[in-house]
Write a sequence for this structure.
């Protein structure tokens, strides 16, 4: 321990590296499972597994945050919120909704809108930071996907992307993404 040369990274930062890599590994595994498990598993079973995993991963972070494991809670919440649109994709492959006449772009836009709402509600309820960022990321494709079939040229895309920019500005200025303290009173 040389006082003239402090360490380049704190022990907390070094601890977060394997945590982030583990979350990345879980996320990649979830995407591969949702996309490639179609040949060996019934679509309804895959949907059930994804829904159970999503619920379990979203129930664990409040418990972990209450015990002071905030970084772990943030990581697990991020993976849980990633599973929300994957569960939506699995629901689409079950074809319970696909027969209703909704296009893939419209359905995807609705799934990302639901994911945005879930992330915002989860951020409010738990006080964790990661769900706020997940809400912003999930909100980005909503308007372009919902308007996809109505856009006919560059002017339409310019209008849609302007709406996305205005939505981002509103999110930044509104209190929806305001940081709240992590709630330790949750079960």
């Amino acid at each position: 321990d040389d006082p003239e040369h402090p360490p380049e990274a704190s022990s907390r930062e070094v601890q977060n590296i394997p945590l982030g890599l583990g979350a990345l590994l879980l996320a990649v595994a979830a995407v591969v499972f949702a996309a490639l498990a179609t040949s060996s598993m019934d679509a309804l079973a895959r949907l059930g597994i994804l829904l159970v995993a999503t619920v379990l991963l979203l129930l664990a972070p409040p418990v972990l945050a209450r015990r002071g494991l905030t970084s772990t809670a943030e990581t697990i919440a991020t993976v849980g919120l990633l599973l929300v649109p994957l569960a939506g994709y699995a629901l689409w492959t079950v074809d319970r909704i696909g027969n209703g006449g909704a296009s893939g772009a419209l359905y995807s836009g609705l799934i990302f809108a639901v994911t945005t709402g879930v992330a915002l509600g989860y951020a409010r309820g738990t006080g964790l930071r990661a769900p706020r960022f997940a809400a912003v990321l999930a909100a980005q494709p909503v308007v372009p996907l919902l308007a996809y079939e109505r856009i006919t040229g560059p002017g339409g895309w310019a209008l849609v992307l302007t709406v996305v920019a205005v939505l981002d500005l509103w999110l930044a200025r509104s209190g929806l993404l305001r940081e709240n303290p992590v709630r330790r009173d949750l079960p």
User: Anything to note?
Assistant: The two ends are 42 Å apart (CA to CA). The mean pLDDT is 84. Residues 11-36 form the longest helix (26 residues).
